[in-house]
Amino acid sequence: MNYESLQTALKHLPLGGLRYLEQVGSTNDIALAWAEEKKVRDYSLVVANEQIAGRGRNGRKWQTPPDSALAFSLLLRPNKVEASQLALFTALGALALTTTLQENYSLKAEIKWPNDVLIEGKKVAGILVEANWVGDTPTSIVLGMGINIHPTAVPPANELLFPATCLDVALSKPVVREELLSGLLNALIDWRPRLGGAEMVSAWDEHLAFKGQQVQVQGRARQVIHGTLLGINKDGSLRLDTVESIHFGDVHLRPSRV
């Protein structure tokens, strides 16, 4: 993967700009800084071959060894409606990936609420959405995603908080990162006009991991809620049979047996 191969693979997409780096601390940091330039347009993209200081939710580390994963951050300029739906952009990225894996690779994937994508119960991707603000209004949204492609992207078992896998193993064949990114961005652009709509919420609910199973949800104050996972509410909150909605931004979802 390099700048030229990305340009070729993504030439049909309405990108506002493209930056490719062999090594970077965090693609989200690069995109957030880039977004401060007023002339930077919607759908500007940062891609890295290696990420040495990537992060997930709650400051967790997300390392991307060279030539092993797809690490990128997409800069979006939200309209007024989208600016009020910031929490749904994580689902937008997750749906774009699950749609692409299903339609382009015949691979079933599920969304572990709120920000992970699983294959056969193992994490294959994580999403981190951040924003630049003026007052209480987001002026730019950065949707960062890390996708395990090759086995070298999967950390050792003793370093994992949740079982993990990669696409090469799931498909039993190599995945071309540029082709995956092209399909994913195309799906994201397709889903974006439906952000927060009934069709998006229904698709999110359909792909929800652990639905109908006994789960436990842990929030910031270490409060643990147990119940059967029923689905996603219209506002993107989680619904259990023991509580109507869970809105915590740093909720972790696990099967009760884990």
Folded structure, characterized:
There is one protein chain. This protein has a 7-stranded mixed β-sheet, with helices on both faces. Strands 11-10-9-8-12 form a 5-stranded antiparallel β-sheet. The mean pLDDT is 91. The chain is of the alpha+beta class and 258 residues long.
What's the shape?
globular
Radius of gyration, in Å, reads 17 Å
Order of helices and strands: HEHEEHHEEEEHHHEEEEE
Mean pLDDT: 91
Q: In percent terms, what proportion of residues is strand?
A: 25-35%
Strand order of the largest sheet: 1-2-3-7-6-5-4
Please estimate the helix content.
25-40%
Unreliably modeled segments: none
Notable traits:
single chain, 258 residues, alpha+beta, 7-stranded mixed sheet, 5-stranded antiparallel sheet, 7 helices, 31% strand, globular
In short:
The chain has seven helices and twelve strands. It is of the alpha+beta class and 258 residues long.
What's the SSE blueprint?
Elements: H1 3-10, E1 17-24, H2 27-35, E2 44-51, E3 69-76, H3 80-83, H4 89-105, E4 110-112, E5 116-119, E6 122-134, E7 137-148, H5 167-171, H6 177-191, H7 198-206, E8 214-218, E9 224-232, E10 238-240, E11 243-246, E12 252-255
Parallel strand pairs: 1-2
Antiparallel strand pairs: 2-3, 3-7, 4-5, 5-6, 6-7, 8-9, 8-12, 9-10, 10-11
Helix pairs in contact: 1-6, 4-6
